[in-house]
Amino acid sequence: MKSFLELAEARYSCKKFSDRAISDEDLNYVLEAGRLAPTAKNLQPQHIYVMRSAEALEQIDKLTPCRYGAPVVAVIAYDRDNVFTFPGGRATSGAEDVSIVATHMMLAAADRGLNSCWLNFFDPDKAAAELDLPDNETVVLLLDLGYAAEGAAPLANHTNRKALSETVTWR
Ligand SMILES: Cc1cc2nc3c(=O)[nH]c(=O)nc-3n(C[C@H](O)[C@H](O)[C@H](O)COP(=O)(O)O)c2cc1C
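Above: the input record for the complex with flavin mononucleotide. Below: its predicted structure, written as tokens.
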């Protein structure tokens, strides 16, 4: 069993998926990991659309060129009417909340031997229209899920992370 750091290191953004389907058991494992994520004030504003029918994947392909053949794409949105508003009123927790949910899902997928790619290369307004979402929902990201195709590998920049000395200040 991989340690958490080994899992975090092994995960990479997959840009070439095989057509192997994901079992419902594995999908539910990934979704459960998202369900367990913390959210501001425990409001749980996330709404996750599991896109896996041919029609649904066709809709995704209209929104982004970055499905890379994934058999499942999770559209991760939040309810704007159910978020924490920061003091000062300029920002809400919606994007933070769903990012934590999605990160749990992405790492749970890796834990289950699945590959993934987090996408923000899409227009959220077009996504809401194409998917006919309720007026109060904003899509933050799309998460490709599936199994890497033969020959798929991390991009060269996968191991290119700044040293802690560049991103951490000890005080
Ligand atoms: C917020 C976010 C948005 C991203 N959007 C896209 C995207 O739209 N298309 C894509 O191919 N990869 C996307 N990626 C993948 C990143 O390019 C990738 O995580 C980064 O280059 C590091 O590579 P690694 O995940 O293999 O370590 C995104 C990743 C994050 C975290």
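Notes for the reader.
Residues 4-150 form a domain with the NADH Oxidase fold (CATH 3.40.109.10).
The radius of gyration is 17 Å.
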